[in-house]
Amino acid sequence: MFIIKSRHEEREYQYVTLELSTKNYSEAEHNDREKFLMRAIKSYYSIEGVLDNENLFDLLAYNFATKQLHFLFLSSKKQEIKDFFEFIRDQYVEWTDNEINFEIITNKSVSEEMLMSTSAHIHTLAERWEDGYCSSLRSYLFDDAPVWLACRHIKKSYGSAVDYYEYLKVFKNKELLIELKSLVPAQSA
């Protein structure tokens, strides 16, 4: 009996949360952080895409609205993600003349079945999440994703942008729904 191995590597989804720590971090820098991160990500994909498009990971979702940075990746190599964060760190130093450190708070593997709930978690982290401020939510609701954002992985799990928005509302209010369900009297037999 012959066993044929696939030439394709196993790929896995990764949910990564980073804590930023900088010296002399001002409120003005905090307000400009999203612009900086968007430019850095775009630069990374432009440079890496030209160098070696075959090995570039997919970025599926992000949220920069909180004090932490949240990312959802599809990658076969953890080194790719590490290189990405090092690139962002180097760009930040160049942009601000300040040192920055990333502390990885969360680095979890995510199954394909968990993509929708993980993206919902990422997209609804901010208090006013519906605005899509500092997150990839707008790309999912308005189909205006930048070429470097791989929305297709999550979009295949829902019908339309309206369906995804409704899913997010239910996801965000799940605690309330659980509380309401517990108030319903048990049915007698």
Describe the 3D structure.
Strands 2-3-1-4 form a four-stranded antiparallel beta sheet, sandwiched between helices. α1 (27-52) packs across α2 (78-96). The protein contains seven helices and four strands. It is globular. It has helices at 27-52, 78-96, 115-123, 137-142, 152-155, 161-172, 174-183, and strands spanning 12-22, 58-63, 68-75, 100-110. The relative contact order is 0.17. Helices cover 46% and strands 19% of the residues. It is α+β, with helices and mostly antiparallel strands and 189 residues long.
The low-confidence parts are: 1-10
User: Structural class, judged by helices and strands?
Assistant: alpha+beta
The chain-level mean pLDDT equals 77
Radius of gyration: 19 Å
Secondary structure topology:
Layout: E1 12-22, H1 27-52, E2 58-63, E3 68-75, H2 78-96, E4 100-110, H3 115-123, H4 137-142, H5 152-155, H6 161-172, H7 174-183
Antiparallel strand pairs: 1-3, 1-4, 2-3
Task: Give a quick summary of the entry.
The chain is α+β, with helices and mostly antiparallel strands. The protein has helices at residues 27-52, 78-96, 115-123, 137-142, 152-155, 161-172, 174-183, and strands at 12-22, 58-63, 68-75, 100-110.
What are the key terms here?
189 residues, 4-stranded antiparallel β-sheet, 7 helices, 4 strands, globular, disordered N terminus
